[in-house]
Design a protein that fits this description.
This protein is an all-alpha fold and 70 residues long. It is built from 3 helices and no strands.
C-alpha cells in the first residue's frame, strides 16, 4: 500500500496564559535565550531606532526568540 504524505497548515490560537512560567523559561532556554537576552534585544532596538540606525538584525533575533521562526 503506498504512503501518501500531505503538508497541512493549521492555525491555532494560543495564549501565553495557557503556559506555566517555568514552561516558557524552559522554551527560551532550549532556544539558547534567557529572559535577559530578550530584554537586551529590545533595548538595542530601542536605541538604534532612536538614532535612526538599522536594527533589522536585532529585530530578526527578537522575532525568533518569541516565535521560534523568522
Amino acid at each position: 500500500m503506498p504512503t501518501i504524505i500531505k503538508d497541512v497548515e493549521v492555525e491555532v490560537n494560543v495564549s501565553l496564559e495557557d503556559f506555566e512560567d517555568e514552561e516558557l523559561l524552559d522554551e527560551l532556554a532550549s532556544r539558547n535565550l534567557q529572559q535577559g537576552n530578550v530584554q537586551e534585544l529590545i533595548e538595542k532596538i530601542y536605541h538604534k531606532r532612536r538614532l535612526s540606525q538599522n536594527f533589522d538584525d536585532e529585530l530578526d533575533k527578537l522575532i525568533y526568540a518569541v516565535l521560534g521562526r523568522v
